Structures are given as structure tokens and as C-alpha cells.
Amino acid sequence: MSKAPSQPQPCVYDLFIAVTAIVSLSLLGWRVFLDPATEIVQLIDYFDFGVCAIFFYDFLRNLKRAPSKLKYMTTWGIFDLLSSIPVFQPFRWTRLTRAARIFRAIKSVRAIVNNSSSAYRESLVVSSFLVAELVIIGSCIGVLHFESMSPDSNLNNAGDVLWWAVVTMATVGYGDFYPVTIGGRFFAVVLMMIGIGLFAMLAGVFADILRSSAKELASNPPD
Fold it and tell me: 0.85 exceeded by the pTM?
């Protein structure tokens, strides 16, 4: 009796794309209820532009790897392409973009449930990426909220907060921007811990992948 072929497990890249699609849909849903003139909306738009760049790269990657490019474009390809369109000015295809993000999020949830429920390493990667993305975005929004209420703050706009977050996560610490409020400093500490933990988690995952590959190569040496 022949054994049914096992479903291929997703790689770290696929899990990252899946989690990003879910987080992106959540941000767009929250953006609807905010005043478009606020700096928080501007910060969300910056995040969305970065997400769209990732989605467009993923679309090109899937198109190149698809056995049938026509079949891909007539199925998930069109949704992958539409989801890479930003929702802010001057791009005004908001409804199509949001619909495409919904379909992409549904596909991501299905892929995560089908492939990660029985795989510890993949489940750990999904959970870590989800927590990290939510904390990074939440910390940036929290810092912008608290710092914008202080007259002594130098973090008053979305661009400066985004730059500060990248520098803080990378543990570079230029010192050109820094929070002065208690709330802002609290989120800064959280962001530092997440940045260090995320790099450590990725290093552990890559080390486990290399160890598994070396073990498989030792068990099945090439001819």
C-alpha cells in the first residue's frame, strides 16, 4: 500500500509572509477608524508601504517559481499583485487592495494551520514572528502617542519614530532621537528586548536548520 505524499513544510520565509499578511490586514482595519491627518496614520502608512514592497517581491518570486504562470495569475496571482498596492495617496484602489489583503490573509491562515499544527519549529517561528511584528508596530505607535504629548520630546513625527525604532532594535543607539516620557521609555525597553530576542530566535532557527541538514547529509551521503 503506497504511502500518501506528505505535505511540504513551509520555510521561514513563507511563514514570515503569512504572518505579515495577517498583521497588515489588522493595521488596515484599524486605520479606517483613525483621523487621516494624525501622525499615527502616517506611521501606519509607512508600515504599509514596507509591507507592500515585501508583497510585491513575493509576487515576483511566486510568479518566477510557478510551474504555470498563466494558472498562477488566474488564481492567487491577481490577489498577490493587488495586495502589493499601498492604500495611501496617491494610490486610491483602496477597496480592491483591502479585498486582496483579506484573501491573502485567509490563504495565510490556512497555510499556517495546515502546516504548523504538527511541526514544533514552524509553530515557534510563526508565534515569534507574530509577537515580534505586533510588538514592534505597537511600540512605535505607543512611543509616538506618548512623545507627541510632551513639549520636550524630539520624537514628534512618524518618520523620526520609525528611524529611532530601527536604530533601537539594531542596538546601535546613535542618540539623535530618544524618548523622554515614562510611557515612551517603557515602550523603548520593550522594543529593545524584542529586537534582541528576535535576532536570538532567528539565530537558533538557522542553527537548527543547519544541524538538521548536516544530519540528513550524514545519513544519506551523496554517491
Answer: no
